[in-house]
Amino acid sequence: MRIERELMRGAGPVAVLKLLERHEMYGYELIDALSKRSEGVLALGQSTLYPMLYNMEAKGLIESTERAAPSGRERRYYRLTRTGHAQLAQQTEQWVAISRAMLALGILPGPTTTQEALA
Amino acid sequence: MRIERELMRGAGPVAVLKLLERHEMYGYELIDALSKRSEGVLALGQSTLYPMLYNMEAKGLIESTERAAPSGRERRYYRLTRTGHAQLAQQTEQWVAISRAMLALGILPGPTTTQEALA
DNA sequence: TGCTATACTATGTTATACGTAGTATGCGGA
DNA sequence: TCCGCATACTACGTATAACATAGTATAGCA
Predict the structure, then answer these.
(1) Could you read off the pLDDT of A40-84 as tens digits, one per residue?
(2) Distances (CA, A) of B79 to A60, B17, B19, B37, B84
(3) Residue A114: closest CA among chain B residues belongs to which residue?
(4) What is the CATH number of the domain that holds A95?
(5) Which nucleotide is nearest to B14 (CA to C1')?
(6) What range defines the domain where residue B27 resides?
(7) Strand D bases, protein C-beta under 7 A
């Protein structure tokens, strides 16, 4: 399922923050993880993800360390800051609110059918 | 619940198309309906909604007629075109896909708790 | 007459998703 | 040993939508 550009807005950043919540990850790894974990729906390109990371770091949501991987290659590992955790919580709440609204309008399937529809 | 600008992207248009699915409505009425039906979450301002309508009409998703309301005031009534119906169906599908992805990532609450969480 | 709600138009700003292009390295096979 | 490929990241330009702000005009009511 190909998602339109504009619908992706807002979904990407929250997803990245969520992945970084557990443990640090590097860019290339995030791209892979997002794509796989969402079955291609949140498949961000490099030109989307990397600037997003720079942006988030500038805002203090994440921080990074450049470090050699076991393979010997240099990688930049990102992890959530305290601010990032707060932001994740806030944005998650907003996503739930939007979902509720979309549900109320009948765009997302109702509670009784949610399980089958989103299964 | 105040929703950030970027998270709103993509949500507005689908919601508007959905409201117009049933019967024609005019701009001011749509603003009101969106705000009320979503409990303020999809509360678009005039400067967001009107350009959105012009845009959608230019794309052929909706069409309009200017007509005097019972009150005597001129209003522009919008209704879905065939293309608009198709677009609504497609975007609805995409919204479901994104929701499923957000659910898989643990951002939206899981199936068993969806009913309570979104209730 | 003046105020308020209704109804719409116009313009400029900001943010981000993505296309495209380019750089550099580790590794496996021919 | 050398080539090609996957890995890993950087850089720049474009398009688009959400919104702030401002302005126009009318109906109804006190």
Answers:
(1) 999 999 999 999 999 999 999 999 999 998 888 999 999 999 999
(2) 45, 9, 9, 19, 9
(3) B111
(4) 1.10.10.10
(5) D17
(6) 5-107
(7) 7-13, 16-23, 26-28
